[in-house]
Write a structure and sequence with these properties.
By secondary structure, the chain is of the alpha/beta class. Helix content is about 35%, strand content about 25%. The chain has helices at about 40-50, 65-80, 120-130, 145-160, 175-180, 190-195, 200-210, 250-260, 265-280, 295-300, and strands at about 5-10, 15-20, 35-40, 55-65, 80-90, 95-100, 105-110, 140, 165, 185, 215-220, 225-230, 230-235. The radius of gyration is 18 Å and the shape is globular. About 50% of the residues are buried.
Length: about 300
């Protein structure tokens, strides 16, 4: 059987994670924490999630010619991810994320983009020009790299009949050239509000769907998710788990959703798998460490109704 295929164009970081009892407020210091360094970046996290969910994953991005860049590349390779499209840029640092996580699993994140900000359209076209994608594949794009790289990748995917999926995180205006490709959009509640000016998630989803004529999924954290498709609105209940660390849960959702769509799973069923996997990802510390396997997600989806 041919493996589902997902192409991801996005960011690669190293995460510097600090666990504390409570998140610091402006001008305050919280002591007594513990520290760990882990591979991260929204694009790389999504790639790991998709690979563990059973997809053959191709990754396009950029790291610096430094120790953390080599470490990030090794982490992708260890997951079986094709890194031929991962550039190594001289005299540019690899991206770094500073993450603070509190006792409830909530987090604050600040990112120094580094090499991610240098990814351009010319490199993306060159990296993808050598690729012959499988039919029915998905191209997942994330907003931690420049617009021109995303538009180039989206156009490449659309020309080859792939599903274009855009996770507009962190939120910024979506290029008109990208909207014209009718991508599936997957913002969270805050990002949807920033993109549309609508605080109500349903209204925000409808506005985004009108702009793309395609499904829009807004993730709502502990409240599940909202789907607007063909003018219909559906609220999706969350899976309930005892969360330890929510870092990367949105990336788990996107990577697993892309993998299931590429496998030919219907959209609403794919969302169920994505929500189950996102919940499972919060049971371990760190973004990539908690990404569940296909078998673990299947077991959660098949579990009795008490899990939701």
């Amino acid at each position: 059987m041919t493996m589902p295929e997902v192409t991801i164009v996005g960011s690669v970081n190293i995460d510097l994670i600090l666990w504390v009892e409570r998140l610091p407020g402006p001008g305050t210091t919280v002591t007594g924490g513990t520290f760990e360094r882990q591979p991260g970046g929204k694009g790389a996290n999504q790639a790991v999630a998709a690979a563990r969910a059973g997809a053959r994953v191709r990754f396009v991005g950029a790291v610096g010619d430094d120790d953390i860049g080599r470490s990030a590349r090794a982490a992708l390779r260890a997951e079986g991810i094709d890194d031929d499209g991962l550039a190594t840029l001289a005299a540019v640092p690899t991206g770094v994320a500073l993450i603070v996580v509190d006792a409830r699993g909530e987090n604050q994140i600040a990112v120094a983009s580094g090499a991610n900000a240098r990814l351009d359209a010319a490199f993306v076209r060159a990296a993808l020009g050598r690729v012959r994608p499988a039919r029915g594949g998905v191209c997942l794009l994330g907003f931690e790299v420049p617009d021109e790289a995303l538009v180039a990748a989206g156009e490449w995917a659309a020309e080859r009949g792939l599903v274009v999926m855009v996770n507009p995180a962190p939120a910024r205006p979506i290029p008109a050239a990208l909207l014209a490709l009718r991508p599936i959009l997957t913002p969270n509640e805050g990002e949807a509000a920033q993109l549309t000016g609508a605080e109500d998630p349903t209204m925000a989803a409808r506005r985004l769907s009108e702009a793309t004529s395609a499904p829009v999924i807004i993730t709502l954290g502990d409240d599940g998710a909202l789907l607007v498709e063909a003018g219909e609105t559906l609220k999706l209940a969350p899976y309930r788990v005892h969360s330890i660390d929510a870092t990367g849960a949105g990336d788990a959702f996107n990577g697993i959703f892309a993998a299931r769509l590429a496998a030919g799973t219907p959209l609403r069923e794919s969302l169920d798998w994505a929500m189950a996997g996102a919940a499972l990802s919060t049971l371990a510390v760190g973004a990539q460490a908690g990404m569940p396997t296909l078998e673990e997600i299947a077991a959660q989806v098949a579990s009795p109704g008490g899990s939701r």
